[in-house]
Automatic annotation (TrEMBL):
InterPro entries: Na/ntran_symport, SNS_sf, YocR/YhdH-like. It is found in: Membrane. This is Transporter. It comes from the Bacteria. Belongs to the sodium:neurotransmitter symporter (SNF) (TC 2.A.22) family. The chain crosses the membrane at residues 14-35, 47-71, 92-113, 152-170, 177-197, 217-244, 265-289, 309-338, 350-370, 390-413, 425-445. Keywords: Membrane, Symport, Transmembrane, Transmembrane helix, Transport. Pfam families: SNF (PF00209). It is a multi-pass membrane protein.
Length: 451
């Protein structure tokens, strides 16, 4: 349409339906699925976590994701502009600041993990990562994470890659990487799943992940599962609203939300099926935490013919998957700087990059020289992760659901979802008005011990 064309010319827009899905799935699928999901599931009792996680994805995640798409596309603007256009003269837009803080916090620790991945990629190529036993993989990873120099250099290198791509703008940068990446990653994950399922610990691993022990469902497991659901869907900070603002007027929003959530969940589950059988085969603790996949994956790769090749290919794809996610975080902050603060794209990118470099460095040092610096007994890295995933994103999502359910003019929902059936609109409205806010508030209150 004409509006689409003029928007495409001024703010950039995704060219095809496939590019829309590729970019949103590219944002969603990343370290959250392959690194964070297994580590959170592992520290929160496996099956109990899994059950709540799936529930949160589909009962809260999909509605809030659709709501973000609606806010972005109906206003063609970042989350601040969206709040302001939909509720002029009212302070709802202030909620956008939660998203900006969250995007900066997340990119800081995320880049550290992507940096570890860079080193593992290089070491796969040089061959120095193969042929060790699982105890050696353990000490090798700890040596990297606690080093005072290497993690910082890798983090900086990763951020440099990210910001070079971001500086070039929406269409060129994001679409190109996303289109090839996901299918290839998927094939690789299937291969590793098959390998893991033949390990002696396979049934124990699958039981751990898929058979919930209901006595393990505690408020802190629920908070962890809710945080993971938000984190993995890039939800609650306005990132998906920003991407929604680039959608064509023909993109079906609800269907895109369901597709994104389903593919994202699939990748997380595949990752769990790869990690936990290996955990129980190689005698690693499922509750190892952020180090889990870096200790376990090399053993899996080493057990395959042509191990270093698989290993290099996998870590390479994981870097690309991380990039498509950090690009979307940066894009959220940059759209804010440009459209709300009147910066040029260049200044906006530099501002975002500077903040990420400073806080990324602090996170990179927090398993080594800065390990003693604790916030509520968490190191900087873990504190950033906890704050953003478990608090900021769900809080942002809470406000988005209340806003789109109660405040935003009703006809916008209808228009943006048309030609949706009436029952779909009713169901989504109930989810946004009542179920999502109650769910989020309940988990918050229970986990702080207030109720
Ligand atoms: N969803 C991404 C992942 O699972 O790796 C992480 C993420 C990307 C969070 C973008 C937030 C965001 F804005
Ligand atoms: Na994800």
């Amino acid at each position: 349409t004409d509006t689409d064309n003029s928007i495409a010319a001024s703010r950039g827009q995704f060219a095809t339906r496939f590019a829309v899905i590729a970019a949103t799935v590219g944002s969603a699928v990343g370290l959250g699925n392959i690194w964070r999901f297994p580590y959170e599931a592992g520290t929160h009792g496996g099956g109990a976590f899994m059950l709540l996680y799936i529930a949160f994805i589909f009962i809260i995640g999909v509605p809030v994701l659709t709501a973000e798409f609606i806010m972005g596309r109906s206003t063609r603007s970042n989350i601040f502009g969206a709040y302001r256009a939909l509720a002029p003269g009212r302070p709802w837009y202030l909620a956008g600041y939660i998203g900006i803080v969250a995007s900066m916090t997340i990119i800081s620790f995320y880049s550290v993990v992507a940096g570890w991945t860079l080193e593992y990629f290089i070491e796969s190529i040089t061959g120095s990562l193969s042929g060790l036993d699982s105890g050696q993989y353990h000490s090798r990873f700890l040596a990297l994470a606690s080093d005072g120099v290497r993690p910082v250099l890798w983090t900086i290198l990763f951020l440099a890659l990210n910001f070079v791509i971001v500086a070039r703008g929406v269409n060129k940068g994001i679409e190109r990487i996303s289109n090839l990446l996901m299918p290839t990653l998927f094939v690789l994950l299937i291969v590793f799943c098959i390998r893991s399922l033949t390990f002696s610990g396979a049934s124990e691993g699958l039981r751990f992940l898929f058979s919930p022990d209901f006595s393990q469902i505690t408020p802190s497991v629920a908070l962890g599962a809710m945080g993971q659901a938000f984190f993995t869907l890039s939800l609650g900070l306005g990132c998906m609203a920003t991407y929604g603002s680039y959608f064509s007027s023909r993109t079906p929003l609800l269907r895109s939300a369901v597709t994104t959530a389903s593919l994202d969940t699939l990748v997380a589950i595949l990752s769990g099926i790869i990690i936990f059988p290996a955990v129980f085969t190689f005698g690693v603790s499922p509750a190892a935490g952020p180090t889990l996949i870096f200790e376990v994956l090399p053993s899996i790769f080493h057990s395959l013919p042509l191990g270093p090749l698989w290993s290099a290919l996998f870590f390479f794809l994981l870097i690309l998957a991380s990039l498509t996610s950090t690009i979307s975080m940066s894009e959220t902050a940059i759209a804010f700087f440009i459209e709300e603060r009147g910066m040029s794209r260049r200044t906006a990118t530099m501002t975002n990059a500077t903040v990420a470099l400073v806080f990324g460095t602090l996170c990179a040092l927090s398993f080594g020289p800065l390990d003693g610096f604790r916030i509520f007994s968490l190191n900087i890295f873990d504190a950033f992760d906890y704050l953003s995933s478990n608090i900021l994103l769900p809080a942002g999502g809470l406000i988005i659901s209340i806003f789109t359910g109660w405040v935003m003019p009703r006809h916008i929902l209808r228009e943006q979802l048309s030609p949706a059936r009436r029952i779909t609109l009713t169901a989504l409205t109930i989810l946004l008005r009542y179920i999502a806010p109650t769910g989020i508030i309940l988990v918050f209150l229970r986990s702080t011990g207030i109720i």
